[in-house]
Amino acid sequence: MEKYKVVVIGGGPAGLAAALESFKNLDDKKVLIIERDKFLGGILNQCIHPGFGLHYFKEELTGPEYAHRFIEQVMENQIEYLTETHVIEITPQKEIVAVNKKGLKRIKADSIVLAMGCRERTRGAIITLGTRPAGIFTAGQAQRFINIEGYRIGKKAVIVGSGDIGLIMARRLTLEGIEVKAVVEIMPYSTGLRRNIVQCLNDFGIPLLLSHKVTKIHGKYRVEGVTIAKVDSQLKEIPSTERFIECDTVLFSVGLIPENELSKKAGIVLDMRTGGPVVDNTFSTSQKGIFACGNVLHVHDLVDNVTLEAQTAGRYAAMYSQHPELFENNIHINIVAKEGIRYVVPQKLNKNFVQPFVLRFRVDNFYKDAIVTISNAGKILMKIKKSILTPGEMESIEISQKILSQLDFSNDIVVSLQNI
Amino acid sequence: MSRIYDVAVIGAGVIGMSILRELTRYRLKVCSLEKMEDVAEGASKANSGIVHAGYDPIEGTKKARFNVEGNNIFADVCNELDVEYKMIGSLVVAFDDHEINVLEELLQRGKRNGVKGLEIKGQEWVFANEPNLSRNIKAALFAPYSGITNPYKLTVALFENSIQNGADVIFGFEVCKIEKDGDYFVVHSADSRFIKTRVLINCAGVHADEISKMAGARLFKIYPRRGQYYILDKPEKMPVARVIFQVPTEKGKGILVTPTVDGNVLVGPNSEYIDSKDDTATTQEGLDEVFEKARKVLPNLSKRDVITIFSGIRATPDTHDFIIEEDEDVKNFINVAGIESPGLTSSVAIGRYIAEFVADKLNAKRNLNFNPYREDIKRFSELSDEEREEMIKLHPTFGNIVCRCELVSEYEIVEAIKRGAKTLDSIKRRTRAGMGRCQGGFCLPRVMDILSRELKIDKTQITKFGKNSYILTEKRWED
Question: Which of A412, B4, B43, B298 is the most buried (most CB within 10 A)?
């Protein structure tokens, strides 16, 4: 059985950054990246729009450019990687079974970094009624066909979902000569970034229909249209507001789900709200020596944050592989999301590693002028004023040494939100 | 184009394919005419996949006869054709005294139909064996010989075995006119092809009444009756071990909850008469009805795990029984129509009966070369690691996983194409690529790469299921 210090599963932005950081921190530089696609870079390869790297590189890059910077470093350092290789099993003993055209490989890792990313929710998952003709795509499929393979996927489209991906695809389809009839959003607000609403919809005159849903898909062979309707505050359709939009294409961009089938099989505890593993501030999952980062952990809106998070995970994975004893006798305190906060990552603080870390979280609704507080044992340790908070935007807070030094370790850390 | 056959079967659903396969046991030149690009494109791809025990149909009916006969031989046929069949048993659950009386009637009817092993079980047994069922259930009829199969995979297997044994299946052949020319029927397609045949068998499902009329045969009416379903993601632990039915009503066997042979949970169907024979839309009312009724039996059922919804259409005849007969006026024209539930269970028995009848009529000799065995495609997901390694040595593409949810390899997709799959849906049904929780989000473009390469066609020519169901509309640049 081949042996590695650190094996990273997934060669997208999270996997690349984690592998590089592990590599830097190892004496014995046995690091392996396993990627199921033909190329490293993950989904960034098909994201040819700009806007990546503004925080991390302080310049605006496309997805492939952003990925390329990390792939180059992987090459320069001659970090080992396997492409077109599919991991089919991870055991709690950190054995990996992977398969490719050459055969079945069994690999023993001292530590593993999970970086498998996420998948898209589908038309079926949100129970969209009507027929099942051709012409229904997820945004990712459409992006691949258009940006990588060079095909046009239709003539007239309706986009369901107004997160950043839906907005960016609205612009992309328009630039490819596909008429986007509307972007339909069930919530009363878009979860996309303000700049994307302006640059992708307003600049092209594409209507954004908030509080609307597609109630029916029509068409026998190819999509012939959709019926849309307004929804009330319970998201139930309002009768008599139905109208038909003729189109041959429906594009669903209705959310992402961390892809944790392998994690589940390895017995890793998952957080119902993030869909990813429960981790502590070392990004260690419930299985010792298995770490997680990127969209497999929780869905990010900026790749820059993925990179930073993956670097931390990679650093601790390297540390674990060299000094597993530091991770013995772990004692954790919980970091708990309370009113207004949908989730926090990490969900735990490891008492062996009381070091400054970044707490990432999302709120559960749209808030104006609110205060995020971090408290412990009934004491408020930190207050941050925010003029706007939306579920679409991930928030980050530095937990400094000063705050850590005030902690009462017999109590949870609580993150909550108050209106001003 | 013209071809001359002894027997032609219209419709390549599970009934048509069962008959076709059984016909190849004789020295006859036989074919099937199918308007779509694949088998199982109608009711055979969208039903519950249940192999019924036979306590439902009224004694003396064709439904009762073929159900019980079909159940008896089902396992053997699935064994020959390498199709999954699991005899997991079924329960009809009763919530009150009135329903318990119905169970008693079903038990007696089942006994008269010749169904073995039926028993009414009390609450204690039910909860010990199906702990997730509602505590309001008072009793249940247990049918140990009920089972589950995969209806479209059975149809595909029957198709492949028919081809192996010399039958033709002509796709894209939409019958539009039937004439008589001496001893032969001349059957015309919408795109101006025709074939000649001595015997013509009508298995056109929901359109069988139109075909019968076209042939100048008996007039009857087929009413389309739609049923809607939810498919749930493969659970870590199945919520039920058996097929769970509710007490039947005049509308049919009602909403069931069952494991599928592929490891998903299937919930449905409701029953609604619809105007159009092709209206396979799902509706809010229909799905709400299904969910509510299923919840009554399985209170913990959650929509969170739904991966897709679909509907299928039953071909309900106005005669209230299967129509299986040679026409009185049009000799050598045989209607096999109105085959609603328990049609899947009955299919193999109907096939046998019709083939014997036709062979007798044509004085056909036995085909001594008939091979009843067909091997399924080797599936990555079902092998041990050692077997996988062996297969990769023989076929490196077995190590290239294309569909990550269902672990489908490139080899399986190529093999499906070699066996006749031409569309995305036909690959999905044969290999499960695109049937998992991501519903093709990841593998659809990859399956299209393989289809395009193997069939040597441009990707813009690839369809979901034939006709105008194109995925891509235009190539914008060349690589």
Answer: B43
